[in-house]
Design a protein that fits this description.
Keywords: Membrane, Transmembrane, Transmembrane helix. By secondary structure, the chain is α+β, with helices and mostly antiparallel strands. The protein has helices spanning about 1-20, 25-50, 60-85, 90-120, 175, 205-220, 230-235, 265-280; strands at about 130-135, 135-145, 145-155, 160-170, 180, 190-195, 240-245, 250-260. The chain starts with a helix and ends in a 15-residue tail after the last helix.
C-alpha cells in the first residue's frame, strides 16, 4: 500500500515537472488562461450592466444575477481545464476536477453554516419574531445549522393570517436577500386603511369621524404600550396621520396608524366596521359608486 502511494506521488510530481520544464507550452497556456479570465470578467460586467438597465423586481434581479454568475464561472472553469489538459497529466486533471466538484458540493453547506453564524451573532432574527425574506413572510419557529423555519403568513390570503404551512429556508438566503424584521426593536408596524366617498360628500365630517375613531383606538390600545422615546430616536412617526386625495372616482380618505403586527387583521376589521357604520348613518356622506356605461 505504501509503495502504491509513493509511486502515485512520484508519478504526479514527474508529470508536473515535465509540464513546468516545457516552458513554451507553460507560458502559452498561462497567456490563454489570462485571456479567458479577462474575457469572462468583461462579459460578466456587461451582463450585470444590462441587467441593471432592465428595471426588474429586486428579488428577480438577484436570482438572475446569481444564475449568470454561476453559469459564467462554470464555463470559465471548463475552458481553463481544456487549456491545461494537454500540459498536465490526465490523472492530475481528474484530481483537480474532483477537487472542484467537492468544493461545489460543500459550498452550499458552508454557506448555510456561515448564514447560521450571522443569524446567531449578528442577531438577524430570533424565535417568534416575524420576518420577511424575498417573497416569504412568516414567524420564525426554528433555526439550525442548515436552515430556519417560518410559519407562513398571508401569501394567497387577503388578511395577514397564518396559512398553516411551515417553510424551510436555507440559511444562505440571508446572504443574498434583504431580511425585514418586523419586531427587531418592538412589534409595532404601521398600517393603512382608506375609503372613497363622493366628491360632493361632507369630507370635513368624514375626516372627523376617522380621526375620532383612531383617537379612541390609540387611547385603548397604543398609548399604554408605545415606546415614544424609541420612535423619536428612529425618527418614525408614532401618531396617526390622515390624508385626503382627489381621484376621478371620488375623494380618497386614507389614514395610517400603528398596530401590533399580531393583531393587524383584527384591528383593521374593527376600525373599518366603526368608520363604515358612522359613514352610513351620516346624511351628507356617501360612498363613491363606480359607474359603468354601456355604449350601443
Amino acid at each position: 500500500m505504501n509503495q502504491y502511494v509513493e509511486d502515485l506521488q512520484n508519478s504526479i510530481l514527474e508529470n508536473l515537472n515535465k509540464a513546468v520544464d516545457n516552458r513554451n507550452l507553460y507560458y502559452n497556456n498561462l497567456t490563454k488562461t489570462i485571456v479567458v479570465l479577462i474575457f469572462f470578467v468583461l462579459l460578466f460586467m456587461l451582463c450585470k450592466k444590462g441587467l441593471n438597465r432592465m428595471n426588474l423586481d429586486p428579488n428577480k434581479q438577484r436570482r438572475i444575477h446569481r444564475r449568470i454568475k454561476n453559469t459564467l464561472l462554470t464555463l470559465c472553469l471548463i475552458l481553463i481545464s481544456i487549456i491545461w489538459i494537454n500540459a498536465l497529466n490526465s490523472l492530475v486533471i481528474i484530481l483537480i476536477l474532483l477537487a472542484l466538484f467537492a468544493a461545489v458540493l460543500i459550498r452550499s453547506t458552508l454557506d448555510n453554516i456561515i448564514g447560521w453564524y450571522f443569524i446567531r451573532k449578528r442577531h438577524y432574527f430570533k424565535l417568534n419574531q416575524r420576518i420577511e425574506i424575498g417573497d416569504k413572510i412568516g414567524k420564525v419557529v426554528g433555526v439550525n445549522f442548515f436552515y430556519f423555519e417560518i410559519a407562513e403568513i398571508k401569501n394567497w390570503l387577503t388578511s395577514e393570517s397564518f396559512t398553516g404551512r411551515i417553510i424551510k429556508i436555507p440559511n444562505k438566503e440571508i446572504l443574498d436577500n434583504e431580511v425585514f424584521n418586523y419586531n427587531y426593536l418592538n412589534q409595532m408596524v404601521r398600517q393603512e386603511i382608506s375609503f372613497i366617498i363622493r366628491h360632493d360628500s361632507n369630507y370635513h365630517d368624514a375626516k372627523k369621524i376617522v380621526e375620532e375613531t383612531l383617537h379612541t383606538y390609540y387611547e385603548n390600545e397604543i398609548y399604554s404600550m408605545n415606546d415614544g422615546e424609541l420612535y423619536e430616536k428612529l425618527n418614525i412617526p408614532s401618531e396617526p396621520s390622515f390624508h385626503l386625495d382627489i381621484a376621478e372616482s371620488g375623494l380618497v380618505l386614507s389614514c395610517q396608524f400603528l398596530v401590533d403586527f399580531y393583531k393587524v387583521s383584527a384591528v383593521k376589521t374593527k376600525l373599518n366596521e366603526t368608520i363604515l357604520e358612522a359613514f352610513n348613518t351620516h346624511p351628507e356622506i356617501e360612498f363613491a359608486v363606480l359607474e359603468i356605461k354601456q355604449v350601443n
